[in-house]
Amino acid sequence: MATALATVVNGLGLFVSTLWGLREQRFLAVFEAVTSAVTCMTMSLTLCFLAIHRHARVEAGPLFI
């Protein structure tokens, strides 16, 4: 009886550790996805602002000459 109880407790421990490991993997996957999305959005906005700045400089140049 003690051996069966020890086996059940051991099995529950493995089950909980597996669930915990899967939860950590999901967290890391979500964290990487959010990091990637923020990086992409930041670079896109930076390039957009640089393009607007360049376009504004080119348009304003001939007006003052």
What does this structure look like?
This protein has 65 residues and is mainly alpha-helical. It has one domain (2-64). It contains 1 helix and no strands. It starts with a helix and ends in a 5-residue tail after the last helix.
What descriptors fit this protein?
1 helix, mainly alpha, 0% strand
Distance between the termini: 97 Å
The run of helices and strands is H
User: How much is the radius of gyration in Å?
Assistant: 28 Å
Mean pLDDT: 84
Question: What's the shape?
Answer: rod-shaped
Structural class: mainly alpha
Share in β-strands: under 5%
Helix content: over 70%
Low-confidence stretches: none
How is the biggest beta sheet arranged?
none
* Domain module tally: 1
Total helix count? 1
Number of strands: 0
How would you summarize the topology of this molecule?
Elements: H1 2-60
Summarize the structure.
The chain crosses the membrane at residues 27-52. With 65 residues, the protein is mainly alpha-helical. It has one helix and no strands.
